[in-house]
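Exam review. A common question shows you a sequence with its structure tokens and asks you to describe the fold in words. Practice with the pair below. Do the first one on your own.
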Amino acid sequence: MPILKLPFNQFSKSKSPSNWRAQINQNQLISQISSIILQRHNWVTLLPNFNLASKLTPSLFHQILLKTQKNPKISLSFFNWVKTNLGFQPDLAAHSQIIRISINSGLFQPAKDILDSLIETQRVPVLVDSVTRACRRGKDSESPVLGFVLECYSNKGLLTQALEVFRRTTIHGHVPSVRACNALLDSLLREHEIKLALCVCGALFRRGVLPDYVRIAQILCKNGKVESVVRLLDLGIVCNALIYKLVIDCYSERGNFSGAFHYLDEMCNRKFDPGFGTYNSILDGACKYENEEVIQMVLGSMVEKGLLSKLPLLEYDSIVQKTCNLGETHAAQMFFKRARDEKIELDDSTYGCMLRALAKEGRVKEAIGVYYVILENGVTVVKDSCYHAFINVLSEEDPSEEVSKLVGEIIGKGFSPCGSKLSKFVASLCKNHRWKEADDLVNVVIEKGLLPDSFCCCALMEHYCRSRQIDSAIALHEKIKKVKGSLDVATYNVLLNGIFTENRIEDAVSVFDCMRSHNLLSSTSFTIMISGLCSRKELRKAMKFHDEMLKMGLKPDIATYKRLISGFK
């Protein structure tokens, strides 16, 4: 008779009595703690009796959060209490759980504070998947929580991450809230990512979500499709003062003043009462296209409506600054010029506003003109942002002699462009073999105690070494050291080779020491030093470098090493 064999796995998976008792005890502990937290106002004084510091595990903590979620404020208080008083660090799943509980109960600010800390430490896929699991575990809809996550990323301007949240949300089969989608679109508009914004709109339309009409109109107008927005107005699908303003802006920018005035009249007929910004938009376009008839017509309307005084002599400062803040630099320039022609004394801040506005609009020639006026009149520009905007736009220009001089001058005043722009500017000077200007510019940066981009210095250093201007190369290296900067390994090796061609052993050792301090040594660096010292019969010094090279594991390939040690013979 065959022996009946029972599967071993069946018994091995069953729990022992001790495991069952542990599970029962844990369940009792969860129930006791949850009951105390929910039913006792003085739970903070009662919990220490349970010695939670030694018993609390991620699993137990999750269970308590789920048991207490019926009172979200209490659940949140417990979450914060264990962190502060027990030193317990909840895992990502617990953070996701409390975010879900908080959002679904309208506790948005605490949820945002917790989410902000996760955004700094977690990758988007990991965070989104964790939040999704938390919602499923809590038997809630994922959409509101994922929408909140999307909104947070968007409001922070983290576009790449926000788009990834949007993508993963739709992959999970959910549609973010209109508010979250609007936040994403706003973020894309701020960064002028119009094509991406159109793609997001398309994805939303396919899922039955209609974003705010104003945002749709903004995207269409910025994409040059004002006619599509006009159709929405003419068909009566939308009737919004902001959308009328967008259409007027677009027509004015194009020089289509008949269209601009038509929709201005439409606004008035619909009792929307267009303000300073709307009229000034048409004025800005008229100034851009030098249409004197339209300029006078708009100015007359603005005076008639009380938006400008008949004698704006005392208002020039406020008008110019207000117009600059609207980004309408052509109109601002007209008022600025009129004030100067009429010998009206303007505030120093007005000059700064003009400089910054023109720079931000990329009107470099006009910005330079205002800068010269500032110098001529001895104006003190108070706000640093004015000069920062000016030098940033200058750094994006082709480095003419005038622009190069101005960049050096502004840096000399203590204002430096962002590193990538300065690097690109210096690289352009080097590419055109304007080494003297590049050298002067880097020197100005260093003299101001600023740390130049390493790329700028490397290009110059390599030029000095190739042209055997070793004194200039060493001088530049000393200046870089003073501001605690460094070169890259390849450039350091070029410098070492250049120094050895001039038989300057002490300088070579000094440069090598600097490389060592910045952890920038390579097999090639040691090869240059050892070869250079051997060829000059400094065999003892060469052997020290040889031993250091082997100790650091930077031995070169066999062929190179054979040539290297042959120098010791």
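Now try the second one, then compare your answer with the model answer below.
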Amino acid sequence: MNHTHPPVLVVGAGPAGLVAALTLLQNDIPVRIIEQDINPRIGQRGPGIWPRSLELFNFLGVSEVNDLGKPFPSIRGYKLGVAEHTHMESMVPRTENTPAIPFNVPKFMGQQLLDVILRRHLDKFSCSVECGTELRSFKQSDEGVIAVLAKKQGDDEILETFDTKWMIGADGGKSVVRKQLGITFPGETKAEFRILTGDIRLTGVGLDRTYWHRFGDYNDKCVSLRPTDEIGEDGWHFLILGRDIDLTELSQNEELIFETISSMSPMEISFNKLVHSSEYRVNIRMADKFSKGRVFLAGDAAHIHSPTGAQGLNSGVQDSFNLGWKLALVEKGLADSSLLETYNEERLPVITEMLDMTTSILKHARTTGGTDAWRTTLLYMLGIHCRFSSIVLDEFATPVEGKPMNTYRILDETELEAGDRAPDAPKLLHVQSGESDSTTFFSLYKPWHHTVIVFASRLINAIPILAALESYDKHVVRSAVVIPSSAPATPVASLADFVLLDQGDHACSAYLVKATQIKVFVIRPDGVIGAIVHGAEGVRKYFSRIFRNI
């Protein structure tokens, strides 16, 4: 089979597909990414982005998501037909910024803008999305994948046979990739819960753009209007639901949408333009596995669920981030293909619990009419873990037989195990020769390498561990020694890539390390703690689960 083409074909250019492509490109793996739609998607779609996803975008160098995203506004609740709001509520809990959690504020960013930002980052690698290109069929073997693509050119269609080594299906809930793999998609359709959602430009007396306005309740009939400047100074994202509203008819009639919003809001509203609208039916489904052979599923192609909790887009990009670094190591020949089996192993339990949680929030909203079930840091996704994974190693944790997996948990900063999210720590002072500035752990963590963090009371205590790392490729394994704030800050030479003084004690605090203790953390390229070990032997044991024999 001829493999002069890019070794990875990504099908679907939504956030999951774009993150998969960007992660691979940053790992020096060429990618071809195709998208069936000839025009870019418009509209907000899944706009909620939670702190864990903000961390992943930070690792990818996509700082614009946090910088340009808008915090969740407070909600003004109204009774239908009443101009004065009856109450105020918050969609998310109030949390304090901490050294270990630098991105503690959830953000709204419409998918239309997010796609533009991610595509610009692909451009830096001379990779662009091929719009109007559809996957028709494919066959795979032990050596690779042969895909048949159809590219639209005006009224014509050109067929192409494309040879590649791997394929990632991020082509949505109706995934062609999933169907042709023969992977089942069990679940249910909540036919009784339908909404019309979209973007609209309007102005209204009393519609303060500081707030999100909701008229009525989710358990009966309501219209909500959330301000978004992404489509204009008069832009709003709207949602309409009601048991006695014919949403199918409504979705096909712009004037009827205007009339419905006006009838449910007592305010005088001037409508300027309907930008986008779509009818949404709640489907709760998950593929029975996320890969087969050389082909993988990510995002909505693998799981779809209720919009309550806004976990969909976030789960999709986290799928891709989990898969990307593993596929890169295998494609480079540094890891055995068995590493890819951990994509299913680590993501299936997480998504199973996510579906249960978002369905529970939906039921609560339909019963009570409110959004108070959203006000939990569980949705921040910072407590998601893969402690159960066969490739993580923890020499400090005591296994408990029969303990529930509980992969979707609220972050508890008083405990830290291998498989957990790696915390951040600021004010780490470089003490190597020639460097005197400070950094953060998150500045060190990158999608293309593991980072070995050695906590030691003295630099000399880290030498055996650093010596053990000399046999690993510096492009995929980096190292840092962290010494306590009581140590001298004089410049030193070391085998480590970084020697850092924990001048604010933030690192020791976040990683639960005593100043006199030697403790080693191996941080995976996806920002997850791969191992917590005592020394060099533990590091070698962990990497034996990742890399081929050296």
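Model answer, second protein: The mean pLDDT is 93. The chain has 13 helices and 28 strands. Full marks require stating both points clearly.
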